[in-house]
Amino acid sequence: MASVILHRLPDLCSYSDIEDVMTKVVEAIRALEELALSKPKELQQNPALRRNLYDAVRKLVLEVETPSEMAQRLLYTPCEMMAAKIGVDLGVFASLNKSAAPQSTEDLAESTAAEPALLQRLLQFLAAVGLINEVKENVWGPNNATSNLADARMAAGINHKHDSVMPAWHALASWLKRHNYKSPASSVDTAFAQGHDAPPEQTFFEWLKQHPLNADQFNMFMGVHRIGAKSGVAAPAVLNLLKSSQGGTHNGVAVNGGLPMEGSSARLESAVFVDVGGGLGHQCKELRRCVSDLDTHILLQDLPEVIGKVSTEIHDLGIDTMPINFFKGQPVKGATVYYLRSILRDWPDAQATIILEHIHAAMSSSSYVLIDEIVLPDFGAGKEQTQLDMTMLAMLNGSARTVAQFKKLIDGAGLELVDRIRYSEETGEEVLVCRKKR
Ligand SMILES: C[S@@+](CC[C@H](N)C(=O)[O-])C[C@H]1O[C@@H](n2cnc3c(N)ncnc32)[C@H](O)[C@@H]1O
């Protein structure tokens, strides 16, 4: 790959004219674009290199755009989400992705039951923003974005952001003005409630109970919200921690060499890994994939309405489930690990402390709490990290946190941070390993 680029980009110093240099740079970028289309293994096998390229191109766009290009990009960004949502509703991405050959507007009109003239306008826009390819006049094909959007979980993400999150984003500016630009201290009265015209005391999770379709989209999206990203439970240091603490007993019940009877309270109490607020169990499945050879007893906990929707696959994998409310208590005592992924970000400090305090009360002296979250750097936080923070603010009065903010929270709940397992440099995701203070 490098030789192809170098061929297009000979020693720039030999060019005295800046225009010549720029022309060569443009040629090299075009060459990169062609190479990216062929998905070179150098990029696939080197996520840091791929990410550097992605960041460089994104920064370059910001540096070279004119004011009017900036306005076109920024002011119309919501239009892309709107069109993606219509494309998902019509099944355009799935249809293009599974078709062996490119499809005409008429083909797609037939499969989507949309009027051809209207569909043509939508397809033109989707192609212009790079979500599908315009192969020739009135003929469309898939690209990298199309195949991402053809994934049902990513389509659920579009539905979730469009239907549940967008009204909260839209309300945040006036909500902040109304609250004198102060950080929210309570989990009720959110921009989300304002945007959805819901009662102020209703949190997003309570609202989901009355909106089962939105709940399905959210829970499905949680399985993929960091698409292509690494999983904290698969990090070798986390697996080692689990392995090294196996073979003992919990509340007098042997963990290895035969679990107590299914459904018995002794079995639930013998849990090694408790995924607290684990949604539909994506991380439990990932852990089971990594430790299938071990008797690690995995328990998935979430609200009753979520546990009720867990697939039979979870039980087939030997993962137990338990409905809980983590604000009311932690019923499983002395587990090896209590795992919280993307939980504390949902809540202001007061509510996050209650969740940790209930776990603290259930822990033995050898239990760990693993907090799997994006940790905001003190300087130079990236787009993914800060847009998550803005979204948590708008949806739940929640917050992404720096390590100092996490430490304060952890300390306030009687815990201490004993290790940090950074498993994704790209996104700043870490597993914060905590134990009871000694
Ligand atoms: C952002 S999602 C994270 C899900 C999962 N841990 C993951 O990383 O994919 C937050 C989860 O917390 C659950 N949750 C919210 N309030 C809860 C409560 N009071 N008790 C238990 N679970 C709750 C939600 O149902 C949801 O599954």
Automatic annotation (TrEMBL):
Residues 272-415 form the O-methyltransferase C-terminal domain. Pfam families: Dimerisation (PF08100), Methyltransf_2 (PF00891). GO terms for biological process: methylation. Keywords: Methyltransferase, S-adenosyl-L-methionine, Transferase. The keyword Transferase applies. GO terms for molecular function: O-methyltransferase activity; protein dimerization activity. PROSITE patterns: SAM_OMT_II (PS51683). It comes from Sporormia fimetaria CBS 119925. This is S-adenosyl-L-methionine-dependent methyltransferase. Residues 81-139 form the O-methyltransferase dimerisation domain. It comes from the Eukaryota.
